[in-house]
């Protein structure tokens, strides 16, 4: 469709561009000359640096140039084909003549565009003239730096660099200019009617269209809706056009930049003031419906972004969804599964570090996912106490990485299979993502605390028995074992052999518990010299909040200590016997108190045991009577 | 591996039905439709207690010479029907149950999507993906 020869180009252009573009002789000559100037390769695409140079030489303001590139269709295509180039030249001429940059303008009989400082014969022929006042669609401040982006190299496929958002920093809530970092989101639809005309023109395939026609409609619509924020569009198009060659990892369209993040945050807070809370589905639906994307697409976006499948959006999920919508409106086809960078951007808002190279993000995200996730799981398995729920509430913001193991694993294989042309996700990222998914999904650890039904009964019993008066007698799950407690354990071994009788019911758990104790012990070696047991509860509460990985171990430990009268696995703690002697007395005191507590536990357990035995006897008797009655009733049936 | 998977709404119209395309799809549609009678019969019989996982799974509805039909009903009377080829190495009951569980999970995900109106045909790509994973892969 695009040829290099001069005259045929014009023919091709007029043929391909439809009937609206007719070039007279001068124009044809001029344009083909310029075309030759800008020709970089033989594929028919023009080298965008040269095109950019040419545009700059036209001395039009950057936003006008961006509009030109957008209108001529090069933005959609990602490069300047011959037809786009010609249309663009016409538009430049129009702009320089003071006409608005619209497709209709090219039909007018225009003088040739003028370029300043262009090293070509075209320049020689045409004197430079300062650009006329261009009636840009909007006069955005700060767009001057926008054009400097053209010199930056970037992948051709980075159609929508996040850096676009940087110039228009105007506050996100100004209604008449729909927030600049937000293209085409018609919360403030500025007169869509007159712009509908563009759809008709722009949707006409100029040279080639993107594989689907709908995205082009969207992109044009987006550009059209953008009346007051066209600068972003233009800067985007300009940047994209001018970027050939070297890939720029930061230009990944699926990354959320700081500014976008800020905008999303504002929108989120407008819907839901608390950043840690959820936006429920209905509210989100209304909000996103305003974007005028078709419902199936919105539905798909929702599926992609609602990671934990709870029908509500956390802040991160909201950012993801918003980002996808904005991308869609800019003409990006929706991915089949969540892009890697967007999935990581999902944690990024928390990291608050969107510009670091992706690998570093990976590491951070892995760690952040593991830690809060471990803490989440640990807290979740705790009991049904309200405190756990309260603790859990703020954490979704941190690590709402899916708690269901299935979705991320499903997403990942889909990601490998997808055939999107953009190469933003490298295999290393995919692998890393797989690894990131694996750590959070191991089955939650401390479920064993519930596997013993007796412990739950004991909780109730103890609470009823008003034994809670004793300090340190907390309902086991929520309370953390005090930090010094592990230190007590080694002393238990030295001073008091474990009472075997009590261990028996809990033996299975102790063995598991041992490993965790060792871990806890290793970590809290210094914290032996902590407060006395009375303060342990306070400390334990803090521990719960502060140290994530240790939670399961501690909680269980405490449950062991207070309920089951435990000590013992202490023998496993024999290794870390490094208590300095000055603390011995303090620890002795603690040990003695622990002994007392254990004795009380013992007593309570004995009582419980006897009660249960009695109940068992009663039930037995009932059963026997029932059976005998049954036999009486059915003497023939029973054999 | 299923040959046909269908999701039928409470009012007994299909929300989603998908068959292995090589064979006559109409036949499967008919089979699913007739299996609805069996489903109704089963759920009316088990009317006493509510919502046990076991009771959600209805088991083999009826075998024919070519295939077997399994049913599963949710608490909201949405029915899942899986048609399996008899010539297949007979799938264990557990496998069928797990298939239904997966279906149920994806179905709830679709329902959670605020853009999906209950009663509309299911158009979710994720759901499609899961169903494809369960169906016989046609060469």
TrEMBL record, chain A:
Record's protein name: RALBP1 associated Eps domain containing 2
Biased composition (Basic and acidic residues): 511-521
Biased composition (Pro residues): 168-179, 474-487
Species this protein is from: Mugilogobius chulae
Domain EH: from-to ranges: 27-111, 260-342
Start and end residues of each EF-hand domain: 293-328
Xref: Gene3D superfamilies: EF-hand (1.10.238.10)
UniProt entry keywords in alphabetical sequence: Calcium, Coiled coil, Metal-binding
GO biological process: endocytosis; endosomal transport
Superkingdom as given in the UniProt entry: Eukaryota
InterPro entries: EF-hand-dom_pair (IPR011992), EF_Hand_1_Ca_BS (IPR018247), EF_hand_dom (IPR002048), EH_dom (IPR000261)
Coiled coil: 591-629
An example molecular function term from Gene Ontology annotations: calcium ion binding
UniProt keyword Membrane, yes or no: no
Pfam families recorded: EH
Region feature (Disordered): 161-185, 394-454, 468-588
Automatic annotation (TrEMBL), chain B:
InterPro entries: Longin-like_dom_sf (IPR011012), Sedlin (IPR006722), TRAPPC2L (IPR044760)
Gene3D superfamilies with a match to the protein in the record: 3.30.450.70
Keyword Transport among UniProt keywords: yes
A single GO cellular-component term on record: perinuclear region of cytoplasm
Main location: cytoplasm
Subcellular localization(s) per the UniProt record: Cytoplasm, Perinuclear region
GO biological process terms on file: endoplasmic reticulum to Golgi vesicle-mediated transport
Family, per entry: Belongs to the TRAPP small subunits family. Sedlin subfamily.
PANTHER family per UniProt: TRAFFICKING PROTEIN PARTICLE COMPLEX SUBUNIT 2
Name of the protein in question: Trafficking protein particle complex subunit 2-like protein
Organism, scientific name: Mugilogobius chulae
């Amino acid at each position: 469709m695009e040829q290099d020869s001069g005259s045929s180009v014009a023919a091709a252009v007029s043929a391909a561009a439809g009937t609206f573009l007719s070039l007279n002789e001068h124009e044809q000559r001029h344009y083909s000359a310029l075309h030759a100037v800008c020709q970089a390769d033989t594929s028919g695409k023009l080298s965008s640096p040269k095109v950019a140079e040419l545009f700059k030489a036209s001395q039009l303001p950057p936003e006008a140039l961006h509009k030109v590139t957008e209108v001529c269709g090069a933005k959609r295509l990602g490069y300047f084909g011959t037809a786009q180039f010609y249309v663009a030249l016409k538009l430049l001429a129009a702009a320089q003549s003071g006409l608005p940059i619209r497709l209709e303008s090219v039909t007018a009989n225009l003088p040739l565009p003028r370029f300043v400082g262009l090293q070509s014969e075209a320049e020689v022929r045409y004197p430079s003239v300062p650009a006329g006042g261009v009636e840009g669609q909007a006069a955005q401040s700060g767009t001057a730096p926008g054009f400097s982006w053209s010199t930056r190299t970037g992948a051709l496929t980075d159609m929508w660099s996040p850096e676009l958002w940087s110039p228009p920093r105007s506050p996100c809530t100004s209604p008449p200019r729909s927030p600049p970092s937000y293209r085409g989101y018609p919360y403030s639809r500025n007169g869509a009617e007159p712009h509908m005309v563009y759809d008709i023109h722009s949707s006409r395939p100029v040279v080639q269209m993107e594989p689907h026609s709908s995205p082009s409609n969207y992109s044009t619509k987006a550009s059209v809706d953008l009346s007051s924020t066209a600068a972003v569009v233009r800067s985007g198009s300009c940047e994209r056009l001018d970027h050939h060659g070297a890939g720029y990892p930061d230009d990944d369209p699926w990354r959320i930049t700081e500014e976008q993040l800020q905008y999303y945050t504002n929108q989120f807070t407008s819907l839901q003031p608390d950043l840690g809370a959820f936006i429920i589905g209905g509210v989100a639906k209304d909000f996103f419906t305003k974007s005028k994307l078709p419902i199936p697409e919105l539905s798909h976006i929702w599926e992609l972004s609602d990671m934990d499948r709870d029908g509500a959006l956390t802040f991160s999920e909201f950012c993801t969804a918003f980002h996808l919508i904005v991308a869609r409106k800019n003409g990006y086809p929706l991915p089949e599964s969540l892009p890697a960078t967007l999935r990581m951007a999902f944690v990024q808002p928390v990291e608050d570090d969107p510009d670091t190279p992706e690998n570093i993000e990976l590491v951070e995200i892995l760690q952040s996912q593991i830690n809060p996730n471990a803490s989440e799981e640990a807290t979740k398995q705790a009991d049904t106490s309200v405190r756990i729920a309260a603790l859990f509430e703020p954490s979704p913001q941190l690590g709402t990485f899916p708690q269901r193991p299935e979705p991320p694993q499903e997403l990942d294989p889909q990601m490998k299979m997808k055939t999107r042309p953009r190469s933003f996700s490298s295999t290393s990222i995919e692998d890393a993502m797989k690894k990131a998914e694996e750590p959070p999904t191991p089955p939650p650890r401390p479920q064993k605390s519930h596997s013993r039904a007796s412990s739950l009964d004991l909780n109730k019993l103890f609470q009823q028995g008003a034994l809670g008066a004793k300090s340190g007698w907390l309902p086991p799950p929520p309370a953390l074992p005090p930090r010094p407690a592990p230190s007590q354990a080694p002393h238990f071994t030295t001073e008091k052999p474990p009472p075997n009788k009590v261990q028996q019911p809990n033996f299975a758990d102790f063995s598991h518990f041992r490993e965790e104790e060792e871990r806890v012990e290793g970590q809290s070696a210094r914290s032996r010299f902590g407060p006395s047991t009375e303060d342990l509860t306070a400390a334990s509460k803090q521990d719960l909040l502060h140290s994530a990985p240790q939670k399961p171990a501690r909680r269980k430990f405490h449950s062991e200590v207070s309920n089951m009268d435990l000590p013992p696995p202490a023998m496993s703690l024999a290794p870390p016997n490094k208590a300095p002697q000055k603390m011995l007395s303090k620890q002795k005191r603690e040990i003695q108190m622990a002994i007392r507590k254990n004795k009380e536990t013992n007593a309570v357990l004995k009582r419980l045991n006897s009660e249960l035995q009695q109940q068992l006897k009663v039930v037995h008797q009932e059963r026997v009577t029932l059976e005998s009655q049954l036999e009486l009733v059915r003497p023939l049936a029973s054999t | 591996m299923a040959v046909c998977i269908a999701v039928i709404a409470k009012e007994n119209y299909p929300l989603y039905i998908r068959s292995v395309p090589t064979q006559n799809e109409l036949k499967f549609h008919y089979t699913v439709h007739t299996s609805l009678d069996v489903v109704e019969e089963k759920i009316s019989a088990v009317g006493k207690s509510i919502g046990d996982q076991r009771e959600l799974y209805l088991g083999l509805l009826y075998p024919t010479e070519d295939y077997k039909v399994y049913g599963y009903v949710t608490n909201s009377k949405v029915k899942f029907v899986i048609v399996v080829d008899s010539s297949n190495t007979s799938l264990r009951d557990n496998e069928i149950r797990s298939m239904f569980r997966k279906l149920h999970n994806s179905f709830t995900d679709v329902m959670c999507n605020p853009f999906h109106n209950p009663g509309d045909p299911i158009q979710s790509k994720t759901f499609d993906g899961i169903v494809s994973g369960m169906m016989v892969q046609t060469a």
